[in-house]
Write a structure and sequence with these properties.
The chain is mainly alpha-helical. It has helices spanning 12-29, 37-53, 57-76, 83-100; strands at residues 2-3, 9-10. It comes from Lentzea rhizosphaerae.
Amino acid sequence: MALLSDQFEFTRPQILTLTAGVLQLAFGWFDVFGLDPDYHVIQVGVGALGVAMAWRHDLARMYGLLLLLSFGTLAFSLDDVTTEGFLEVRTALIGLVITLARPAKAAPK
């Protein structure tokens, strides 16, 4: 496992989940892409959920699986190409990366 300090151990999925959550919060808070205001609420919610679920390894994996399934389903139900559709595909791919990321090997002592 990747050690950040003597008390806290973060695995790669946890770091990816925390990073994705913070970025979702930032993109939801600031109008970066000029999206529908309702989509900003979704981004803030998904970001807050990511930050909350990043503190345990199993919850981080579950977050990745939730992103993959929910946003992947939305992406496959698209009729036309929009900015929101691109962000749905991007978020589903982030979920795939979090789900498939392997924890780091234990550091040699």
